[in-house]
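> tool_call: predict_assembly(chains=two)
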Amino acid sequence: MKKIILTGDRPTGPLHLGHYVGSLQNRVKLQSEYNQYVLIADAQALTDYYENPEHVRKNVEQVALDYLAVGIDPKQSTIFIQSQVPELFELTFYFMNLVTVARLERNPTLKDEIRQKNMKDSIPAGFFTYPVSQAADILAFKADLVPVGEDQQPMIEQTNEIARRFHHLYKTEIFHDVKAMIGTTGRLTGIDGKAKMSKSLGNAIYLGDTPNELKKKVNAMYTDPNHLKVEDPGTVEGHVPFTFLDVFDPNKTEVEALKEHYRRGGLGDGVLKKRILEILEAEIAPMRQRREQYAKDMGYVKEILRSGTEAARNVAAQTLSDVKKAMGIVY
Amino acid sequence: MKKIILTGDRPTGPLHLGHYVGSLQNRVKLQSEYNQYVLIADAQALTDYYENPEHVRKNVEQVALDYLAVGIDPKQSTIFIQSQVPELFELTFYFMNLVTVARLERNPTLKDEIRQKNMKDSIPAGFFTYPVSQAADILAFKADLVPVGEDQQPMIEQTNEIARRFHHLYKTEIFHDVKAMIGTTGRLTGIDGKAKMSKSLGNAIYLGDTPNELKKKVNAMYTDPNHLKVEDPGTVEGHVPFTFLDVFDPNKTEVEALKEHYRRGGLGDGVLKKRILEILEAEIAPMRQRREQYAKDMGYVKEILRSGTEAARNVAAQTLSDVKKAMGIVY
């Protein structure tokens, strides 16, 4: 039997190249080998965006389009909308009894996010407990593998703790041990070179960018501010076109030669930007095309979401039934 | 239109005379005047009894029998099982975003319970957030009134806060303002005279007690330990038969006369116990009879629960639909 993967995104904005190299690319590769569930986590996004649910709702379809654009195949992967699988809320409720408040307070990922978002004394209870909801998502599909960034590993530990506690308390073995699948590619930097690519920092290249938008963004990429004339020696570290070439250029030998040339002087930024633009355009063009195809028939996209969600519901309902049987709360 | 009442109990044990005078009696009176929902809060009980769900499950039917025994009429009141109304979990999930962790930490009822149960650093997240789940129960039925003990009033405030925040954020007015209906009868003391009647203290008279059990408990009632001979003067304060006569004896003048007699000496405890036994037996006998009738046909009791739960689900589903529409998370 195929192993099960659960993966997904919070629909809070269009997906960008950072998502692609960090995760989407991998999903396309894995979907034939694994039984892959792709969750559009709108309910989880609301724990953060509850003041603007419209924003989340709008992005659900956009994220679905991004998935289809990169080549996630609805015949191989089950794409579904979290809020439309009510069994997940019920599982969350029961799992909440198996985690202490103190344990949530110690969760490093949660701690970081609370600090980053500057929540302090106004942490919504829904946000504070989202690791439990995330565990419910994973356990509902009895996932074996969850692709995550390194910073998300504590979430997988939390999930396994809940599963083990459930097994121990209710003398059962219904869940699989979940393994984090840490991506090999680190986080892609943004075009400003300052931080990782992110919508909120305005430094992202979106999978849906037009050729013109892409060109503008590549031209705006941060290079070496001290590299004033072509003949000047330049610094490669933090040079965004080089960072991108490291990730996207298949010809690593040529990239190394270019770096050497740049260091000793005589290589202009324009050449490098042209090279990376061509590579990115070649990467994005087929996505853009697929995206346009699907966008013409949103009824079909909705049908993909509807049938994916239905399939996901059936699986989650079976797990919920197993959970309730194990707990003996069947009437 | 009739106003709506939500009331109920956690099915953690059989109901006793304390429940009767504090609440059940009132429900029987109110059911014709109000649209009354009676919740058997098994899911909430699990936030505390998650290590022993079987205990909760078993008590669901027992509590239903108690309801029917005291005269709650399934034709007038909607009796339902919380865990069988999944819409409540979904509402809880969305309401969790509208309450901060700090606000829950300040909830006086919750603080008291955490101290009483000596939970300290091992507060289950499900227990910590149960005020939100309780608010979901109340708001799901758009209740106007919730009969509570004085110590539960902060829960009503919490519920109204969530409703107001929901209205404000999502520009809607779907919930009613909830009022606490504080009972006139204080908490009934246990037969040991030390604390309020409670299953865990073993000082309770159950609504299902046999005549023999009732007699034994009345005989065991705490009186005045210094009242050794009948002719000795006695103390009325803390004297359990007198406490019960104050509550259950309709003839207050006679009770006052008896107290005076007891104080000056010459009145034996046996006389008082006999009097309260007769009154309690007259109160409990019809309950016992109704209980036996229903217990003979548990299929019928289950059918009452099934159809009550179905009716409750329809109402909760409508509210959930209103909530999702207001939030704009309809796909």
